[in-house]
Amino acid sequence: METDNLTTDFATGRIILEEKETGAQSLAWNEHATFRGVYLKHLITGKDTQGRFSLHLVRIEQDCAIGDHVHASQYEMHEIVEGIGEGKLGGKTVAYIPGVCAVIPEGVHHGVVATQSDLFLLATFIPPLL
Predict the structure, then answer these.
(1) Which of 37, 5, 12 is CA-nearest to residue 27?
(2) Nearest in space to 29 (alpha carbons), one of 120, 127, 126
(3) What angle (nearest 5°) sits at the alpha carbon of residue 111, between those of residues 108 and 112?
């Protein structure tokens, strides 16, 4: 898998918290339980933030998707790091390209598809996903 420097930096960089530091390279890519071709690297979990938020590097392989779903009690923010895709936010379709940030309120149906290449995004959850 070929990536640009920013994606590599997040995937192999350092996670620094007041009481500890972790190398992101030591964190596993976890296959999504439901969506084929989707992997998450859990950079920061609720255990690290006293249950306030979590941060995940997400890789969606080309022509794969995070299908339509909803988080009943979480806000989610996507920051697109690399690749090309589409985000479905409620009834709106948004081009997912580097530099785009999308905020998804709790209770809003959403999904993501990697259209022309693998898609990498940072996903922040408030409260945490994990």
Answers:
(1) 12
(2) 120
(3) 145
- Give CA separation, 95 vs 11, 27, 85, 110, in Å: 23, 29, 6, 13
Please give the Cα distance from 26 to 3 (Å, whole number).
Answer: 18
> Tokens for 98?
């580097």
Q: Mean pLDDT over all residues of the chain?
A: 93
Enclosing H/E stretch for 10: helix 5-12
| Predicted TM-score of the model (pTM) | 0.91
Domain positions in the chain are 27-126
pLDDT digits (tens, 9 = 90+) for 87-105: 999 999 999 999 999 999 9
Residues 27-126: name the CATH superfamily.
Answer: Jelly Rolls (2.60.120.10)
